[in-house]
Each structure stands twice: as structure tokens, then as C-alpha cells.
Design brief:
Oligomer: single chain
Order of helices and strands: HEHEEEHEEH
Structural class: alpha+beta
Radius of gyration: 24 Å
Shape: elongated
Distance between the termini: 103 Å
Strand order of the largest sheet: 1-2-4-6
Number of strands: 6
């Protein structure tokens, strides 16, 4: 006598699907974390390449490039914006990726932000920088400005390159050519207000006591630039 074949009951199928969903969920969360970590690592690596590119540009030309302005004529085209006087139209803007030849966008498709001390980006008919030029860009560990990573004028930073991170707040979108939503935390607002003060610190979530922060930043110090220029015979 043949035994009737028995299939899965609806309850058994539901349990099996639940178990599969749990297994998939446990795999997807670490995968998402790995992707995010890779994006951060790639952006950090490219920012260091941009920093080196700035030094190479200065050695080749005798001055640093100007930012690509974020509004007005010639905005967001990747080309540095220089006034007739030889100074930058703005000391703060997008990284001039076409002028320098790299750095079109970070891992989240936003423009890299670039700030330069105007004394080090002026060119003819203006006067280019010398060993006597002072730099005033400051890097801090928080917007409270209690702990500085660079000293003040004359020994501050001459240029800053940063990504506004995964949240992209305060950045110019490379996809739409428009500004993203403004930053909400004090430390991220400091990096998007166009002043000479910038913040770098470990990342934190929006609900942390320190506030949200995922910006990735690097800078060129006055002495690093001078050392490179002297070694290449461009100064004094």
C-alpha cells in the first residue's frame, strides 16, 4: 500500500520564510556597513590625492588654484574662478576638478569643498606668495574652537579639501548642480559657512551628544607648502 506524499503546511512554509528572512537580514546589515566603510575609505584616499595635487599645482604654477564658485557666472563648471585682479572670486567653493584634473565628486556624488587662503592663490597681475606670507585658515576639533589642530596666523593652513560625507549636508550635488539641505549640527555648519574655520573629528550619529558629523577633511599647512616649494626650487 502506497503512503500518500505529504507536502509542507502553510505554517511550516511561514516558519521557513521567516528563518530565511532572518538569515538574509543578518547578511545585508554587515554588507551595508562594508559598503559604507569602503565609500569612506575611497573618499579619504581621494582627498589625500587632491591634497597632493594642490601641492603639485603650486610647484608648477607658483600659486594654489582658486575654488570653482558655487553661484553666479561660471559656477559649478569645475574651472577655477579668478578675478581680473589675479585674486580668487571667492576663497571658498567647489574643488576645481577640471583645472586640477581630478576630484569631480566624492563617493556620494557630491562636490568636494575647497577653501584656500587668498594670499596663496593670487597670481599676476597680483603678487604671488613668498616665504613671508602668513596663513590664517584654522582647523579645530569642534565648532566651540577650544582645541586647534593648526595654529593661527601666520602659521595656519593654506588650503582645505573636504567631503561633506554620506549625509551630504551643505554640499553641492554633482548630479543636480544644486545645494543639498544645510547642515544641522554645529560642527558640520562650521565646515559649510565659508569662513576660515574648519572642524575635523571622529564621526558621530545625529542622536549623539556631540551632534551629527561625517565630514572627511584634510588640509595643506603653510610649512608643508613651503617645504615643497623650496625643494622644487620655486622659493625663495
Amino acid at each position: 500500500m502506497r503512503t500518500a506524499e505529504r507536502g509542507f503546511t502553510l505554517i511550516e512554509l511561514a516558519i521557513a520564510l521567516f528563518v530565511i528572512a532572518l538569515l538574509l537580514g543578518s547578511l545585508l546589515v554587515p554588507l551595508g556597513t562594508q559598503v559604507e566603510q569602503r565609500q569612506i575609505a575611497d573618499t579619504e584616499k581621494e582627498i589625500e590625492q587632491l591634497r597632493e595635487a594642490l601641492l603639485g599645482y603650486a610647484v608648477a604654477n607658483g600659486y594654489l588654484p582658486c575654488p570653482d564658485v558655487m553661484s553666479g557666472s561660471g559656477a559649478n563648471d569645475g574651472i577655477e574662478d579668478v578675478a581680473a585682479s589675479g585674486s580668487c572670486r571667492s576663497d571658498d567653493g567647489n574643488f576645481p576638478w577640471l583645472t586640477v584634473g581630478l576630484g569631480a565628486a566624492d563617493a556620494w556624488n557630491n562636490r568636494y569643498r575647497y577653501h584656500v587662503d587668498g594670499s596663496f592663490s593670487t597670481r599676476s597681475p597680483g603678487a604671488t606668495f613668498t616665504l613671508a606670507s602668513g596663513a590664517s585658515v584654522r582647523i579645530w576639533t569642534s565648532a566651540a574652537r577650544t582645541t586647534a589642530l593648526t595654529s593661527g596666523d601666520p602659521n595656519g593652513a593654506v588650503a582645505v579639501v573636504l567631503s561633506h560625507g554620506k549625509n551630504g549636508k551643505g554640499a553641492m550635488s554633482a548630479l543636480t548642480g544644486t545645494l543639498n539641505a544645510p547642515a544641522t549640527s554645529a560642527d558640520e555648519r562650521e565646515n559649510a559657512d565659508g569662513t576660515v574655520n574648519f572642524v575635523t573629528r571622529p564621526p558621530s550619529a545625529a542622536d549623539s551628544p556631540a551632534g551629527e558629523f561625517d565630514d572627511v577633511l584634510s588640509w595643506v599647512s603653510r610649512f608643508t607648502l613651503y617645504n615643497r616649494m623650496v625643494s622644487a626650487g620655486r622659493l625663495p
